[in-house]
Design goal:
heterodimer; A: Pyruvate-ferredoxin Oxidoreductase, domain 3; Rossmann fold; seven-stranded mixed sheet; 21 helices; B: alpha/beta; eight-stranded mixed sheet
């Protein structure tokens, strides 16, 4: 089982922590990520947890994982396969060994390998290694539970608390293997358990015990050296997609000089946006936890009518419930951002797993001709940028905007160079400040076709809006057939004109070539990694990644014209490719789709693109 | 809300839109009562916002020269909640019907009440779906024959007041479309009350449910079949003010008594709308003809903190103690490192 270990110098390394959903794997992974970021690695993380809070202990269904990819070079994904897996029990081993690279290292809590644990995990024999043919890995059996107990025997802690700190033993081992300082994590304990010196001491003791154990066992543990990455100078922090989304809205409110209102209803995996905005009452944010999804959006529409920057957060099933109200925001031409953190569907589907299958719903999932701006963020940190942009477009163009993220980028995190708000443009809401002669509620500016925003409380601007068709100028109810057709066209044209105000589609790589890879939203990291690998091998491949879907950027044709083949890659059955076929039928599109509740792997993409290039 | 001199009149609140309710519809009278009430409130015209859902009564905002929002079916409570929380300075009114508030919008209705958001909800109750041309509603009487209940309904109606009190409502009043004076009196009290108020106005639909309230509203009988409650006054009714209500303590029920030898005015219950315990209020709202007179007036009016004010205060309080003064502070908070 044991091989002689070496120090391995690597550009990047993937580590996966896997255990029972109560084993503290998310915290363990986060602490490792924070320490790695602190010493200058670039990184990307992805938590992978079950939808049950406490699924039956020891079963595959209850396995919770956290994967982190750290590197000396730029890291764009949490990694496909792990170089090192920490498995805290047989179920974790059973569920995740297939995600370890051949020849990788698996550290197992030896104490968890007992009759009961093996049965619960679905092993039929007493030897999980042979049973699942794991000999190709470097297996390290470490008595994590018993050594944790031993380390804490004199601390006067109850047995439950003792066992709960075994994740810190595993973390200590990983710190030795990667030559990471303990100081950062130790100071975390001191802050987190400020008033519990006993807990601080216990955690430090176990962390150090794990570290020392790995050092003692150095004949079997490999050690890795991953030097700091070359990244742009600046002040950095870690940020997840959901937090970045919440902060992007707050930033937009500041730049627009408006108060931020979020009416919402908790739903996985979007809830964190509502939670974070609720925390930010300290910056004046108003949150309204509504009685249901419909009230979430309707309170936001009311707040928008009353002059706030209004947003609502949801996931797929919630977007379905909000459909009628989005139509109301369309016809009343009020600014509103709906952020949909996509998850696996249909129906309740796979609540904790990512998917890109709500694109058609975002574009068309409403009664009538009901155009809205649809855009998508592509990485955890750029959720900030796109939340900001979504709010800017909503306010300046007086339109609802649907911002799509997904469970992968929403929960994933990465280091982010903290921008200064002075780097961001002002947002200019078309608010009418006072009664002006001949003002009409539905008169528009010629460039954007946006109507003005006359906020209740403004003298002389009393007017009525509503869900019935509007007269094109006065906004009064109109059943006139010609007016209806005109209003339908105006609302569509207003959304299309947003394309004059958004960036052009960029090509990563040469702007001509054999294969153009096209993606949108949260698949960016994997697509960019695969394309970059092939470019290194002098393949004529480039990437065009979309963040603006309706309207499309104005230069799609210019970009697409210069490639032999175009392949559109999505985590769905082909919703964006069908949209492109409709908007740009002049091209032949290949497609690559995967819909397993999992992100792409860069490797599968690379292999697939390679095949296409060889044809 | 800016205090202004009483210079506005009912006319100032009429919009330029043609009123399209059927001739004889009770909605006309209710709107007149509201248009006469608003100038009494000392609130600037631009500070009123009228929000509605869908249904005949929900066309109301179009006819008012105020800020108005005719929204979607059932959602007026949610929209109005958003308006009020976004801008607590506004006087927000929700116009709704028995279908809009009790059926499709039931969830939003009860939660707006539970939260005690300072919105005045005027519930037009004609016990029928008028705009869709005559189907039964959640307040239609048991067994009522309509287009969707040709053999009579088999479901029991909601009593709006009971629902309001069940949702922890702090203000409930009842009026009727043909009593403009009483409507105005109640609307003023509702507007001045801090918190969610619900005024149920019994309203006649001349086309699909004509005379549904006739048993209690016709001139000849109304004095004997209804009682107008006023805070601090004994519960007397009848053409000759010769009847009253007492509490039958043994059966915990309201009982009608004749004033004369056995009972005098001082034996009667005195209406206390401000009583926190909703017990008597519930009995009063649930009185129905022919067993009891139907109660009109402000039945319950209890002041507590409003949601909108609590949100405003909490935000101000947290903000004043916060280390964050702007987004730059937020972005640079927590763990950061230099590269």
């Amino acid at each position: 089982m044991s091989k002689k270990a070496d120090t391995i110098e690597r550009d990047k390394v993937v580590i996966r922590f896997s255990g029972d959903s109560g084993d503290g794997m998310q915290l363990t992974g986060t602490l490792f990520s924070d320490t790695s970021a602190y010493i200058g690695n670039d990184l990307s993380t992805f938590p992978d947890y079950p939808s049950e809070i406490r699924a039956p202990q020891g079963t595959i269904g209850g396995v919770s994982g956290f994967q982190v990819h750290v590197g000396h070079t730029a890291i764009k994904t949490p990694g496909d396969y792990a170089d090192i897996l920490v498995a805290m029990n047989p179920a974790a081993l059973k569920a995740t060994a297939k995600w370890v690279i051949d020849g990788g290292t698996i550290i197992i809590d030896e104490d968890s390998i007992d009759e009961k644990g093996l049965r619960k995990a679905g092993y039929k024999t007493e030897d999980p290694i042979s049973e699942d043919k794991l000999e190709k890995f470097n297996i390290i059996m470490a008595p994590i539970s018993s050594l944790t107990k031993e380390a804490l025997k004199d601390k006067g802690l109850d047995p439950k608390s003792v066992l709960r700190s075994k994740n810190m033993f595993a973390l200590g081992m990983i710190y030795w293997i990667f030559d990471r300082p303990l100081s950062y994590t130790e100071s975390f304990f001191e802050k987190k358990f400020k008033n519990k010196p006993l807990v601080v001491d216990a955690n430090k003791t176990v962390l150090r015990a794990g570290y020392n154990y790995a050092e003692t066992m150095e004949h079997m543990t490999p050690s890795y050296k991953v030097s700091p990455a070359e990244i742009d100078k600046g002040t950095y922090r870690n940020i997840s997609g959901n937090i970045a989304t919440a902060w992007g809205f707050i930033a937009a409110a500041e730049k627009a000089g408006l108060e931020l209102f979020c009416g919402s209803y908790p739903i996985t995996p979007a809830t964190e946006i509502l939670q974070e905005l609720s925390n930010r009452k300290d910056l004046g944010v108003k949150t309204f936890q509504a009685e249901d999804e419909i009230a979430g959006i309707c309170t936001s529409i009311g707040a928008s009518f009353a002059g706030d920057l209004a947003v609502t957060s949801t996931s797929g099933p919630g977007l379905a419930l909000k459909g009628e109200a989005i139509g109301l925001a369309v016809i009343t031409e009020l600014p509103l951002v709906v952020v949909n953190v996509q998850r696996g569907g249909p129906s309740t589907g796979l609540p904790t797993k990512p998917e890109q299958s709500d694109l058609m719903q975002a574009l068309y999932g409403r009664n009538g001709e009901s155009p809205v701006v649809v855009m998508a963020a592509s990485t955890p940190s750029d959720c900030f940028q796109y939340a900001f942009e979504a709010a800017k477009i909503a306010v300046e163009h007086m339109t609802p905007v649907i911002l799509l993220t997904d469970g992968f980028i929403a929960n994933g995190s990465e280091p982010w160079r903290i921008p200064k708000m002075s780097e961001y443009p002002d947002i200019k809401p078309p608010i009418v400040k006072e009664e002006t002669k001949d003002w009409q509620p539905y008169a528009r500016d010629v460039e954007r076709l946006a109507r003005t925003w006359a906020i209740p409380g403004t003298k002389g601007l009393e007017h009525r809006i509503g869900g019935l068709e509007k007269d094109e100028l006065t906004g009064a109810v109109s059943h006139d057939p010609v007016n209806h057709e005109k209003m339908i066209s105006i609302r569509e044209e207003k959304v299309q004109r947003v394309s004059n105000f958004i960036p052009k589609l960029k090509v990563e790589g040469n702007d001509t070539g054999d294969l153009l890879v096209v993606g949108w939203g949260g698949t960016y990291g994997h697509l960019a990694t695969a394309v970059a690998e092939l470019q290194k091998n002098n393949k004529k491949i480039s990437l065009a990644h979309f963040n603006y879907i309706k309207p499309l950027p104005s230069n799609v044709k210019e970009v697409f014209d210069k490639f032999e083949k175009i392949i559109v890659c999505e985590i769905n059955l082909g919703q964006f490719v069908d949209y492109l076929r409709m908007r740009h039928p002049e091209y032949k599109y290949l497609q690559y789709n995967k819909i397993q509740g999992l992100p792409f792997t860069s490797i599968e993409l690379e292999n697939h693109f390679n095949k296409l290039l060889e044809k | 809300m800016e205090e202004i001199q009483n210079i506005l009149t009912a006319k100032d609140f009429k919009s330029d839109q043609e009123v399209r309710w059927c001739p004889g519809c009770g909605d006309h009278a209710i709107m007149n009562a509201i248009q006469r009430t608003l100038p009494e409130l000392g609130i600037a015209k631009e500070d009123f916002a009228f929000i509605s859902g869908i249904g005949c009564s929900s066309r109301f905002p179009y006819y008012m020269d105020t800020f108005g929002f005719h929204s979607i079916h059932g959602r007026a409570s949610a929209i109005a909640s958003g308006v009020k929380v976004a801008n607590p300075k506004l006087s927000v009114w929700q116009i709704t019907g028995d279908g809009d508030a009790m059926a499709i919008g039931g969830n939003h209705f009860i939660h707006a009440i539970r939260r005690n958001i300072d919105v005045n909800i005027i519930l037009f109750n004609n016990e029928i779906y008028g705009l869709t041309k005559g189907q039964y509603s959640p307040t239609s009487k048991f067994g009522y024959v309509t287009k969707t209940s040709p053999y009579g309904t088999v479901e029991h109606p909601f009593h709006p007041g009971e629902l309001v009190i069940g949702a922890q409502g702090k203000f409930f009043a009842r009026s009727i479309d043909n009593n403009m004076k009483l409507c105005q009196e109640i609307f003023i009290q509702a507007a001045r009350h801090h918190g969610a108020t619900v005024v149920e106005v019994l309203q006649n639909c001349v086309i699909y449910n004509d005379k549904t309230h006739a048993a209690i509203s016709d001139k000849e009988h109304k004095a004997d079949r209804t009682i107008v409650l006023r805070h601090g006054e004994p519960m007397i009714f009848g053409k000759n003010n010769d009847k009253g209500l007492i509490l039958d303590a043994e059966h915990l029920k309201l009982k009608i008594v004749e004033l004369g030898d056995k009972y005098s005015e001082k034996d009667l219950l005195v209406h206390n709308a401000k009583e926190v315990n909703p017990g008597i209020h519930l009995m009063l709202t649930n009185m129905s003809y022919p067993e009891h007179p139907v109660a009109f007036g402000v039945i319950r009016s209890v002041e507590t903190e409003t949601y909108d004010n609590a949100v405003f205060k909490q935000v101000e309080d947290v903000k004043s103690k916060s280390a964050f003064k702007n987004v730059d502070n937020l972005l640079n908070s927590g763990t950061t490192w230099e590269v």
